[in-house]
Amino acid sequence: MNLHVIPAGPIQTNAYLLTDPARGEAVLIDAPGGIWAKIAPKLASDGVKLTELWITHGHWDHTQGAAEIVRETGAKTLGHRADKTMIETPEVMEDFMGAKLGLEGITIDQWVEEGDTVEALGEAVEIRHVPGHCPGNIMFVFSALGSAFVGDAIFAGSVGRTDLPGGSSEELAASIRSRIYTLNDETTLYPGHGPATTVAQEKATNPYVRP
């Protein structure tokens, strides 16, 4: 399996493209603006077809390119129902962003919840619900690979903002402690912005949430 880390969009949101040339399939985690133009060559060079698009949460910078991805690939979409309004009718975010963002909604094919398991690229992937940054933030845990894709719940040395609608600093801290800090210390965390980190690193040094 190959992992491509691809920052895109106006605020350099991380998209993660996982490809399996042996299977001829790929999964994209989050879809910032302009992401299709960046992943199309990688899909071609790896000889794979994008079969699934997973949304960590409904904020505009993670979904701006989602409609184009679905049109171009027909990928099955996955997300958490708590962010249904933002994902399907993203124009609601223009009210609190104070700007016209030109967003287009998508329909989610599979709603997932805390504790669900999905299959992708031959791996069992655990879903953990990590609200606080927004109601529907989820992370995807590839235990066999020692990796977790966490959305905007936690960053290297920081945490997601909680001043947007549906955010709660108390809920986010509780989510991080119960859902992220309970992973194996060696687990690599891939956040929605910035560099990767590890559970051990954040437990030891993150100034915002102590274990």
Automatic annotation (TrEMBL):
Keyword Disulfide bond (UniProt): no
Cofactor(s) required for function per UniProt: Zn(2+)
InterPro entries named among the record's database cross-references: MBL_Glyoxalase_II, Metallo-B-lactamas, RibonucZ/Hydroxyglut_hydro
UniProt-listed SUPFAM superfamilies: Metallo-hydrolase/oxidoreductase (SSF56281)
Pfam family, one: Lactamase_B
Domain Metallo-beta-lactamase: start-end pairs: 12-193
Gene3D superfamilies: Ribonuclease Z/Hydroxyacylglutathione hydrolase-like
Keywords recorded for this protein, A-Z: Hydrolase, Metal-binding, Zinc
Gene Ontology molecular function: hydrolase activity; metal ion binding
Protein name: MBL fold metallo-hydrolase
Species this protein is from: Synoicihabitans lomoniglobus
